[in-house]
Design a protein that fits this description.
The termini are far apart. It is globular and about 45 Å long. Helix 3 links the parallel strand 1 and strand 2. It has one domain: Arginase, Chain A (3-Layer(aba) Sandwich). The chain contains six helices and four strands, in the order ααβαββααβα. It has a four-stranded parallel sheet with strand order 3-2-1-4, sandwiched between helices. It is of the alpha/beta class and 156 residues long. Helix 1 runs parallel beside helix 2. Bound molecules: manganese (II) ion. Manganese (II) ion (MN) binds next to loops. Manganese (II) ion binds next to loops.
Length: 156
C-alpha cells in the first residue's frame, strides 16, 4: 500500500498538481512523504498530531500508523506540533528542538514563530485530526486526553 501511494503521489506531482491526500489513517503519509522527498530537496514535514508517531516498528509492521513519521524524522526536516502522547521509546528519536508539546503551546504562543523559523521553503503538512480537542473532533481512532491544544487554537 505504501509503495502504491508513493507511486500514485509521484504521478500527480509530476503532472504539476497540488496534491492533497485524505487517508483513513496516518500510515498513508509514509508513501506520500517519500514522493514529495523525491521531488523536493530540503523538505520540511509539518505534523499536527496528538501523537509523536515515531516508532520504527509497531505490532510487527513499519507501516503502522504509530510509525507514520519515523522515516520522515530521518530523511526530512520534521517539525511536530500539538504532541501530547508517545511511548518512551519514541523519546530516543524525537528532536525536542523541533517538537511543540500541547501543554507548552497552551501557555506560550511563541511556538508559532519558532516553528515557522525552522521551516524550509518546501513544506508538506500532515494533519492527524486527533490533534484537535475531543469536543471538536470526538471520533478519532486513538483519541488523546488533555484538551489544551484545541482550546488554544479555537479560543474557547
Ligand atoms: Mn495521532
Amino acid at each position: 500500500m505504501v509503495d502504491a501511494v508513493h507511486q500514485a503521489t509521484k504521478r500527480y506531482i509530476k503532472k504539476n498538481k497540488f496534491v492533497t491526500i485524505f487517508g483513513g489513517e496516518h500510515s498513508i503519509s509514509i508513501g506520500t512523504i517519500r514522493a514529495f522527498r523525491d521531488y523536493y530537496t530540503s523538505l520540511t514535514v509539518l505534523q499536527l498530531d496528538a501523537h509523536a508517531d515515531l516508532r520504527k516498528e509497531y505490532q510487527g509492521s513499519k507501516c503502522n500508523h504509530a510509525c507514520a513519521v519515523y522515516e520522515a524524522s530521518r530523511t526530512t526536516n520534521l517539525i511536530q506540533v500539538g504532541i501530547r502522547s508517545m511511548d518512551v521509546i519514541e523519546t530516543t528519536v524525537l528532536d525536542k528542538e523541533k517538537t511543540y508539546f500541547a501543554h507548552e503551546m497552551a501557555l506560550d504562543d511563541t511556538w508559532m514563530d519558532s516553528a515557522i523559523d525552522q521551516m524550509t521553503d518546501n513544506v508538506f503538512i500532515t494533519i492527524d485530526l486527533d490533534v484537535f480537542d475531543h469536543s471538536i473532533m470526538p471520533s478519532t481512532g486513538t483519541p488523546s486526553q488533555e484538551a489544551y491544544f484545541g482550546m488554544k487554537l479555537w479560543n474557547f
